[in-house]
Amino acid sequence: MVFLTVTNLLRVRGPDEIWRKRRIFRLAAAFIGRRRNCYSVAVRNVHRALVYATKARKLKKEDMKELWNTRITAACDQHNISAFALKEGLDRSNIMLDRKSLSDLAAWEPRTFECLAAVAQKKLELDGFIDGADKKHPTGVNLNLKDVMLETWLKEKK
């Protein structure tokens, strides 16, 4: 930097302050108003945004884990096996797939997931594993929840 007077040279605290402020202003570039232009306001808002970003990374992992479990459970219900029994059967068969892989197979490759469920079920039968969940065989009829509830309501009214 070039200073035309000595007073301007004395007022600047050096290059460290310039770069420190520049880093904050770059992080605050998307903000609106004084949150973007005024350093004292920008610093507070940038720190708060960074805290939220840190928390959001952990929440994102939890949300994805919950989504994967939901997909696996729904696919297991279609094939008459509990999610625990599926995982146990795959582990005993030395098929090491994590939640993400299983959920992707359940969503995008249903036939492959069906084969994995069959392998797990067969292995559990051979090992004599007893699952605590009482699963019934599917009827092959797609039930609409509204219709089922309507029939129940009509029976109560009679």
Automatic annotation (TrEMBL):
Q: Name one GO molecular function term.
A: rRNA binding
Family according to the record: Belongs to the bacterial ribosomal protein bL20 family.
GO CC annotation: what is one? ribosome
- Give the top-rank taxon of the lineage listed in the UniProt record for this protein: Eukaryota
- Per its record, how is this protein called by name? Large ribosomal subunit protein bL20m
User: Does Hydrolase show up as a keyword for this record?
Assistant: no
Q: Output the GO biological process annotations, alphabetical, semicolon-separated.
A: translation
Query: Does the keyword section mention Ribonucleoprotein?
Result: yes
- UniProt cross-references to CDD domains, sorted A to Z: Ribosomal_L20 (cd07026)
Keywords, sorted A to Z: Ribonucleoprotein, Ribosomal protein
Q: Supply the InterPro entries for this chain.
A: Ribosomal_bL20 (IPR005813), Ribosomal_protein_bL20_C (IPR035566)
